[in-house]
């Protein structure tokens, strides 16, 4: 029996992934965890795990931190990241901390199954989510309109995706204090007072956020 651990805090997404992977092969068992601590407890209970599928935005420990722990404690259990944040920097960071695969949440169920099949067979799966030019197009619209720095533009992009300051800090490897400084500068550049107004302003740029 193939056992796959799915680590995702949103129940509907977690259940959808389990249903998708259950169609991969007969006898495949998906076990669901709502966060990093629950995942680590399940891994400690048994050594009979073939794969872990991990979201990056978890409530108790970031997916990146969890990947690091798994690489040290359970090096024989391969991991696949499934994330809504699918830019090149995130993909490279996932690779750096030991993931064997990366799938965007905007991908199809077929692509998720392909990634899981590839990694279970001993391979790696890192489909490029977008070309560098595609990844920069939305950034340039924000950058040019509000004359933001590169760092501010990256924070603004994540703000537009609904990320909290804490999530932005974890994804970019910054302190929350630094993110707050960037956020204040972004609000000034946009002539807005809060996140809600900033989101409206970002949506008007036409950027894909």
Number of domains: 2
**Mean of residue pLDDT?**
86
* Strand runs, count: 6
Strand neighbour order, sheet with most strands: 2-1-3-4-5-6
Superfamily (CATH H level) name of the largest domain:
Response regulator
Radius of gyration: 18 Å
- Could you give the distance between the termini? 40 Å
Low-confidence stretches: 130-135
* Oligomer class: single chain
**Residue share in β-strands:** 5-15%
Could you say which structural class the secondary elements and strand pairing correspond to?
alpha/beta
CATH 2nd-level architecture of the largest domain: 3-Layer(aba) Sandwich
Helix content: 40-55%
> Might you state the CATH topology name of the largest domain?
Rossmann fold
The biggest beta sheet, please?
6 strands, parallel
What string, H for helix and E for strand, traces the elements in order?
EHEHEHEHEHEHHHHH
**What best-fitting shape do the alpha-carbon axes yield?**
elongated
CATH class category label of the largest domain: Alpha Beta
